[in-house]
Write a structure and sequence with these properties.
The protein has helices at about 5-20, 40-50, 50-55, 65-75, 75-95, 130-140, 165-170, 190-205, 230-240, 250-260, 270-285; strands at about 100-105, 125-130, 150-155, 180-185, 210-215, 260-270, 295-304. By secondary structure, it is of the alpha/beta class. Helix 2 crosses helix 4 (about 65-75). The two termini are about 35 Å apart.
Amino acid sequence: MEQKSMTALISAFSRAYHVENNKFKIFDDRIARLLLTDEEYFQISKSMADGINFFNTDFKGTKDDALRWVVDNQLSPTPLGRAAFAEKALEIAVSINTRQYLVFGAGYDTFAYRQPNWAEKIQIFEIDHPATANDKRIRLEEAKIIIPNNVHFIAADFTNEQWETALIQNTTFDDNKISFCSILGVVYYLSRQKFEELITLLSAILPKGSSIVFDYPDENNYTEKAGERAKKQALLAGGANEKMLASYSYEDMEKILSEQDFLIYEHLTPLEMTQQYFEDYNHVNPKHLMTGFDNVNYCLAVRR
């Protein structure tokens, strides 16, 4: 990827829209809107509303209704669910001695700029492609958002480069300290070989007790058995030159992780995600129900 990620921008848009249009929030990302220009926010809103017939051929309603439908059904469930899942797990991990947070494919993730008090004691490393990382820093500066002292940027494309060298060479990183790694929205775009290489490298540099959290497509995601939303998502990503590459059964994932000394600690299917993270929101918003995204699972694993 040689330019800023469109899927990362749309993910930021979906988090921003959710905050701006809901009193009850599944995930409260109050910084995301600040990273988008007014023109970008308008253009993404317009293109999604205009594309309603791609997402829902039977839709009837206004442009605003169309945008809300697309966001709640197509764009928001995965970014909101995985962020809520990851940050809940991170908080627990920090309470039991995790001291470093590695954000792979950080994109426009905003945790470092809205970090709660419990996060101030940890070192945060944002690892992403140089083009995206640079674009984010420009956006932070333009939004007058101060980068906290415990935040460090590692500019490296971990699908092609030796990112671990760049990380280890950072004088703040300590490979003896228990770490928590989020790999959100990334696994879809890695070949199985690249994903296995990533897990192998993480196992090599992380001490026992470290955690990884990620979302991944199940074994039906790119087949005719996939849900309609999953098929649309794959088409959208492909249109943005960010093709989805691999998918996994639970048994596949368990084997890949186990071979590198990771044990699955928590695993959520779409139904379980809906029950745990969307139920209260749905109770408040019966006309705008949100469900865990088809064929996407969420995994928290700990190094033994």
